[in-house]
UniProtKB/TrEMBL annotation:
Gene Ontology CC annotations of this record: extracellular region
Gene3D superfamilies referenced in this protein's UniProt entry, alphabetically: Glycosidases
Protein name: Chitotriosidase-1-like isoform X3
Domain GH18: 1-269
GO-annotated biological processes: carbohydrate metabolic process; chitin catabolic process
A GO molecular-function descriptor: chitinase activity
Pfam families in the record: Glyco_hydro_18
Length: 269
């Protein structure tokens, strides 16, 4: 599509028509990276498409006298900043997009030899730890992303690690209500310096090879409040929540329905 002028402009028209027909406020567009792709060529074409679509939104809003549609672009390579710079134009994306989403849930560890870690850590043990919200946010703003455009994404999903063959693997995920069940059974919650909670809890996945308890990393209303206050203090645009289906929809935690989403809503006011 990107190599054909007519196809691109048909795509722009279809996007606008679809958004207006369904009363949506905008669209999120992300770049997909294939193994056989050409990073530099795709990097340039992606900006061409984004800027043209952004211009289309401006022109359509003016001609129809309706509020301009919004263009959101997530950065999914934030766990590897060298690759991010090689494959995506941070400045180009920031100029075209109304909002840039930093997908911090990808801060999970890179290999089985690393110790378990929180998937949306605010700070690291060392200031040089690249896979943290604070480090990457500073990295992106230093390379041209305005603070007022930067959205920090966190995850409602619970990530679980356990020891198998003297190493850790993070294949397992679960929902927030499972954590509440562990707490009600007496499992202790530990918090690190940026208020991220974790629990050493039972195996709820029936992993026969597990050598010890699982370590669960997750978000709760308190940790989300810490992150939102950080976002406000830094002057960033806002927060988004990935995996909202992993929130407690049935009030199993006795915190009301949707406790994570409601905590975000309350703190953002």
């Amino acid at each position: 599509m990107v190599n054909n002028h007519n196809s691109r402009y048909k795509f722009y028209d279809n996007v606008v028509n679809f958004l207006r027909a369904n009363s949506f406020d905008g669209i999120e567009i992300r770049q997909r990276f294939e193994k056989q792709s050409r990073p530099l060529e795709n990097k340039d074409w992606f900006i061409v498409v984004l800027q043209a679509l952004a211009n289309k939104f401006v022109d359509e809003g003016r001609s129809t006298k309706r509020e301009k549609l919004l263009l959101l672009v997530p950065l999914t390579l934030v766990s590897d900043l060298a690759t991010l710079e090689a494959r995506e134009s941070i400045l180009g994306i920031s100029r075209a997009a109304d909002l840039v989403i930093m997908d911090s849930m990808y801060f999970v560890r890179k290999s089985v030899v690393e110790p378990p870690r929180h998937h949306t850590a605010l700070y690291g043990i060392r200031s040089s730890d690249e896979r943290t919200i604070n480090y990457v946010a500073n990295f992106l703003t230093a390379r041209g992303c305005p603070k007022e455009k930067l959205i920090i994404s966190v995850s409602a999903t619970v990530f679980a690690y356990t020891a198998i063959d003297d190493s850790y693997i993070n294949i397992w995920t679960t929902t927030y209500d499972k954590i509440c069940s562990m707490i009600s059974r007496g499992y202790r919650v530990y918090r690190n310096k940026d208020n991220n909670p974790e629990i050493d809890g039972p195996d709820i996945f029936n992993v026969r090879e597990a050598k010890e308890e699982f370590r669960y990393f997750y978000e709760d209303p308190s940790s989300l409040g810490t992150k939102i206050r950080y976002i406000k203090e830094k002057g960033f645009a806002g927060i988004s929540v990935w995996g909202i289906t992993d929130d407690d929809f049935k009030n199993i935690c006795r915190q009301g329905r949707y406790p994570l989403l409601n905590a975000v809503k309350a703190e953002c006011r």
